[in-house]
């Protein structure tokens, strides 16, 4: 069982490492490029389809500061695979080092059930939930990258006086109280 | 525990790693301070992780959730106090540095003095303009008050004049009415008398078949009879 542990390696000096987990591998590449371009500090981006990560790269892989699960609301598989991958993550990650990003929310008007399920999952794990629109324009990708970069900087300790646990308390997803009631359509 | 063993190792090796990085990169003091900040953040997180495992107090998740907002607000309060104090400290350091600099006679100090003097001149100008502004404003308010007062007085006078005018008409018309009626009654009476006399004269002229066309004096009287309107 190769569980990804947050503190099992030495931290990298002046760099931040982020892991993007996405089942469809559509958005990862663009987002990775935007992340690397945008920031002043060095950002190390690793891409994966799902956890557990392959054992061959275990030695060369840096310590991951932030794990981002990218979910596509129009497909069912991505939610299932993200759920499966959560098991391979050490609980130490859930104190602010995990983030959920949802794409194609505007086409999911028929699938409110899936959005609610994602919301419940994020709220129960106390993780922030970001919405990104990456299909329409390249600005969507840069905006999403900028938001991720803010969270990443805190998670890798580059922001003084702020720890990822503190930030997660400020940005965590909360479950709206009427989420179990039927919606209007 | 597995995690604590792994964590003790990194903390020991941290110094070695930092020394390596410095010799490799040749970093500036600002970069080194930043890296130091980053490392202290990491160490803080690791110590949090270690301490989390130690106090095994069993409580339900909902209890923990209830206590969370209090802790967060306390944390925010302390952070704010710390931040404000740091700001104040930085301000004091800056002013001290500026003061020290001004005591020397560098070109930099001369530039600082020039900037300071310009600030003084601008500030006194601002003060003058503000005083002027205030005086003008006061004058305007005075004038507005006077105008309002005058308007009020005008209104009062207009009301008085209207009252007087309405009062004057009424008593005069009262007296006049009775006189007017009397005069009209007399007029009516005399009109009727005249009409009757005229009718009588006309009757006589017609009945006696007097030839009034030939006699000039008679003709005049007869013509006036025709002209006179017969009032019924």
From TrEMBL, chain B:
GO terms for biological process: chromosome segregation; kinetochore assembly; mitotic spindle organization. One of its GO terms (molecular function) is kinetochore binding. Keywords: Centromere, Chromosome, Coiled coil, Kinetochore, Nucleus. It is found in: Chromosome, Centromere, Kinetochore; Nucleus. This is Centromere protein H. The keyword Plastid does not apply. Residues 119-163 form a coiled coil. It comes from the Eukaryota. Belongs to the CENP-H/MCM16 family. InterPro entries: CENP-H, CENP-H_C. PANTHER family: CENTROMERE PROTEIN H. Residues 31-226 form the Centromere protein H C-terminal domain. GO terms for cellular component: kinetochore; nucleus.
């Amino acid at each position: 069982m190769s569980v990804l542990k947050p503190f099992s390696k030495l931290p990298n000096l002046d760099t931040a490492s982020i892991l993007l987990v996405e089942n469809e591998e559509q958005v990862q590449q663009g987002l990775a490029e935007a992340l690397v371009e945008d920031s002043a500090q060095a950002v190390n981006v690793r891409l994966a389809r799902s956890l557990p990560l392959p054992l061959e790269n275990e030695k060369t892989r840096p310590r991951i500061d932030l794990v981002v699960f990218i979910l596509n609301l129009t497909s069912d598989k991505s939610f299932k695979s993200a759920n499966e991958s959560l098991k391979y993550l050490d609980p130490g990650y859930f104190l602010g080092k995990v983030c959920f990003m949802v794409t194609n929310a505007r086409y999911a008007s028929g699938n409110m059930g899936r959005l609610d399920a994602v919301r419940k999952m994020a709220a129960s794990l106390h993780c922030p939930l970001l919405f990104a629109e990456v299909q329409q324009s390249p600005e969507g990708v840069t905006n999403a990258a900028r938001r991720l970069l803010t969270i990443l900087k805190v998670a890798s300790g580059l922001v003084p006086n702020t720890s990822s646990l503190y930030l997660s308390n400020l940005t965590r997803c909360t479950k709206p109280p009427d989420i179990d009631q039927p919606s209007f359509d | 525990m597995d995690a604590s063993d792994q964590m003790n190792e990194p903390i020991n090796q941290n110094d070695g790693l930092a020394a390596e990085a410095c010799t490799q990169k040749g970093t500036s003091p600002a970069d080194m301070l930043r890296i130091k900040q980053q490392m202290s953040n990491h160490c803080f997180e690791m110590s949090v992780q270690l301490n989390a495992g130690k106090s095994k107090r069993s409580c339900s998740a909902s209890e923990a959730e209830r206590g969370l907002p209090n802790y967060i607000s306390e944390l925010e309060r302390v952070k704010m106090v710390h931040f404000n104090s740091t700001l104040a400290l930085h301000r004091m350091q800056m002013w001290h540095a500026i003061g020290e600099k001004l005591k020397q006679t560098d070109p930099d100090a001369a530039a600082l003095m020039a900037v300071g003097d310009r600030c003084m001149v601008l500030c006194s100008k601002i003060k003058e303009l503000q005083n002027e502004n205030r005086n003008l404003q006061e004058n305007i308010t005075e004038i507005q008050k006077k105008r309002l007062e005058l308007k009020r007085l005008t209104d009062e006078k207009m009301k008085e004049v209207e009252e007087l005018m309405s009062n004057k008409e009424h008593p005069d018309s009262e007296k006049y009415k009775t006189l007017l009626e009397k005069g009209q009654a007399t007029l009516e009476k005399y009109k009727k008398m005249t009409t009757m006399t005229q009718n009588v004269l006309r009757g006589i002229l017609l009945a006696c078949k007097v030839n009034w066309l030939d006699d000039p004096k008679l003709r005049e009287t007869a013509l006036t009879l025709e002209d006179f309107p017969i009032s019924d």
